[in-house]
């Protein structure tokens, strides 16, 4: 049995060196997601990442996720590599339970990207969370890819695709959710 839950999302990115912030809202009836992502660059190719996510609307429940970690990147000509490590905590509030449920797990992320023709970048990644999807265990990773095309120095377009694998053993290879996104970025001249 296949279930399709189309969703509508809006994300606003704000950047001012060395900080960047993404604010996101996703409506996937009856669930509403609100997410914040912050990044602070400490040194070239090294930064601190923070995610805060809240979902509400299913069975009067409220789900909250929090991630803090560090990210390290490397550049080798047209090839970029990065990894991130940290802590991910989740809380679930259900009206029929006396106390909320808590879960803590490692935050893990890795990516490899390749830039060709100085305009197109393709990236493959694995992570325990995206802006809206959070895996409660490292055995249910999110796998994905991103393709970005720079139209000019100020404008780029791109698409991303990710799948989350099931964290229910022994069915750990079943896909539990897929996400596709298309975006455009405008960087005004200084």
Map the helices and strands.
Blueprint: E1 8-16, E2 19-28, E3 31-43, E4 46-56, E5 62-76, E6 79-93, E7 101-116, E8 120-127, E9 142-150, E10 155-165, E11 175-186
Antiparallel strand pairs: 1-2, 2-3, 3-4, 4-5, 5-6, 6-7, 7-8, 8-9, 9-10, 10-11
Keyphrases for this structure?
mainly beta, 190 residues, 68% strand, globular
What does this structure look like?
With 190 residues, the chain is mainly β. It is 0% helix and 68% strand. It has an 11-stranded antiparallel sheet with strand order 1-2-3-4-5-6-7-8-9-10-11, with no helix packed on it. The mean pLDDT is 85.
Please sum up the structure shown.
With 190 residues, the protein is mainly beta. The chain is 0% helix and 68% strand.
Radius of gyration (Å): 17 Å
Strand content: over 45%
Averaging pLDDT over every residue, what do you get?
85
The parts where pLDDT drops under 50 for at least 5 residues are none
Overall, the morphology is: globular
Give the end-to-end Cα distance, rounded to a whole number of Å.
Answer: 52 Å
Main sheet attributes: strand count, strand direction, barrel closure: 11 strands, antiparallel
Question: Counting H and I runs of at least 4 residues, what is the number of helices?
Answer: 0
Overall SS class: mainly beta
Helical amount:
under 10%
Order of helices and strands: EEEEEEEEEEE
The spatial strand order of the largest sheet comes to 1-2-3-4-5-6-7-8-9-10-11
- Give the total of beta strands: 11
């Amino acid at each position: 049995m296949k279930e399709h839950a189309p969703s509508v999302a809006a994300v606003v990115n704000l950047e001012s060196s060395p900080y960047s912030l993404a604010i996101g809202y996703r409506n996937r009836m009856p669930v509403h997601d609100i997410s914040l992502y912050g990044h602070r660059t400490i040194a070239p190719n090294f930064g601190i990442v923070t995610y805060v996510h809240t979902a509400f609307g299913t069975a009067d429940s409220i789900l909250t996720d929090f991630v803090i970690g560090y990210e390290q990147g490397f550049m080798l000509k047209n090839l970029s590599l990065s990894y991130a490590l940290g802590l991910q905590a989740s809380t679930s509030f259900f009206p029929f339970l006396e106390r909320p449920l808590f879960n803590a797990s490692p935050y893990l992320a890795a990516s490899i990207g390749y830039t060709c023709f100085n305009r197109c970048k393709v990236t493959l990644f694995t992570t325990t969370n995206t802006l809206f999807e959070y895996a409660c265990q490292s055995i249910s990773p999110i796998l994905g890819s991103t393709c970005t095309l720079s139209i000019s120095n100020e404008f780029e377009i791109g698409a991303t695709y990710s799948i989350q694998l099931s964290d229910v053993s022994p069915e750990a290879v079943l896909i539990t959710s897929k996400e596709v996104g298309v975006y455009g970025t405008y960087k005004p001249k200084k």
